[in-house]
Amino acid sequence: MRPLNPNKLLLSKWTAVLPQNKERHFMVTELIRDDAELITGCILQAVINGHDYNIDWRELKNSEHWQQGWK
Asked: pTM for the whole thing?
């Protein structure tokens, strides 16, 4: 996987390798920043039902759980 630039995550698309609740495709809808304006997390929204999940953006680097793009 290519290195991730957290500043370019907004509106990026992701596929869960092991989908749960039929939620396979996700989009980053919001970036969470700390007091120093560093990105600490992101909100992933499931495309199928619109549920939001707050995760650490570094989890997206784990290729056992996430693939970049919609596959």
From this structure: 0.91
